[in-house]
């Protein structure tokens, strides 16, 4: 039984899962949209939303908190320089997920997660 255990495991250990989430959120902010499986898209959506909320705040403490998740300085600069001010007038819902259908090789449900303009 999985009582009080949150989140998806995605067949990985905790370290691999955290690294996967960091990579996916970094690439989401770099390219503004990524194509991944539906489970991964649903899992990184709240992480990306929290990072955009930090970027909206824009102070030094928020930047250091976001730097714990995003290791690439260029993407961090893009998040706080472009994406954060762009989302300043939105109350939430910074990302959108489109379901694309099954992947050809293993029939996994695919999704497109993108930043809302």
CATH H level: which superfamily?
Ribosomal protein L17
Roughly what fraction of the amino acids lie in strands?
15-25%
CATH class reads Alpha Beta
Mean pLDDT: 95
What is the number of helices?
Answer: 4
CATH architecture identity: Alpha-Beta Complex
Structural class: alpha+beta
Enumerate the strands of the largest sheet in spatial order, edge to edge or round the barrel: 1-3-2
Overall domain count: 1
Fold and architecture overview:
By secondary structure, the chain is α+β, with helices and mostly antiparallel strands. The protein has one domain (14-115): Ribosomal protein L17 (50s Ribosomal Protein L17, Chain: A). It contains four helices and three strands, in the order αβαααββ. The protein has a three-stranded antiparallel beta sheet. A hairpin with a 6-residue loop joins strand 2 and strand 3. Helix 1 (14-31) packs across helix 2 (38-57), helix 1 packs across helix 4 and helix 2 (38-57) packs across helix 4 (73-86). The mean pLDDT is 95.
Salient structural properties:
single chain, 117 residues, alpha+beta, 50s Ribosomal Protein L17, Chain: A, three-stranded antiparallel β-sheet, 4 helices, 3 strands, globular
């Amino acid at each position: 039984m999985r009582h009080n255990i949150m989140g998806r495991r995605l067949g990985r250990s905790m370290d691999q899962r955290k690294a996967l989430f960091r990579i996916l959120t970094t690439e989401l902010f770099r390219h503004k949209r990524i194509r991944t499986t539906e489970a991964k898209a649903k899992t990184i959506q709240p992480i990306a939303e929290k990072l955009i909320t930090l970027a909206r705040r824009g102070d030094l403490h928020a930047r250091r908190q976001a730097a714990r998740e995003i290791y690439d300085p260029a993407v961090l600069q893009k998040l706080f320089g472009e994406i954060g001010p762009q989302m300043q007038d939105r109350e939430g819902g910074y990302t959108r997920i489109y379901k694309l259908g099954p992947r050809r090789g293993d029939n996994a449900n695919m999704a497109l997660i993108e930043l809302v303009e």
